[in-house]
Amino acid sequence: MKWLNSLDELLYEVMSWLLFFPLTLWRAAFRPVSTMKQIQREAVLPDDQRYGAVLSPPLFLSLALLLGHAVATALGQTDEIIASHHGLADLINDNASALVLRVIVFAAFPLFLAARLVRRRGDKLDRVSLQQPFYEQCYPAAVFALGISIGTSLGIDTHPTARLIGHWLVAIAIVNYWLVGVRWFASALDVGVLRAAGNVLLGLVEGTVFLIGVGFLFTR
Description:
The chain is mainly alpha-helical. 79% of the residues lie in helices and 0% in strands. It is globular and about 45 Å long.
């Protein structure tokens, strides 16, 4: 009976993703700042009362990357890291481990931006002060990761129209992520747009350097 009850809960949880993932994606894409403010307000609630209308931040980011990986698989593309046997690539030998690596890489962007936000607030940087800003940053980061993943897959497709759409999708994802970050930093720190833009730019550079470093380790 315990196993059946656990199965009931698991089945409901997984099936609810089919509804709440597109709803969360819509809100994160078209109302990102209000979504992040909602998560900020829910931080004071008990754990079982949080994320009632949206997916939890790490889960949303993971599912966005899973969707991006599914698109690449549907296009008949093979993950280069799985196919490679150089460097640390031998550790990535299936889709599950490749997805975990993607989550870690793209989670670095909200991590660096959240750390920068905490430091600019003048708070002590620790696990407690970092967690909530990191969770808030996961929502725009998931939209960014999904756009980059699908755009990259389309960008290397053989069809010219698909490649054009892919390039535009990557560009839009980058610009949108930067603009959302600027709006959030300006609001959270109560600073001007230029100062907020500089902080976001530095955070994105840190995330990009981390991405390049991981890519180098797993392909060389």
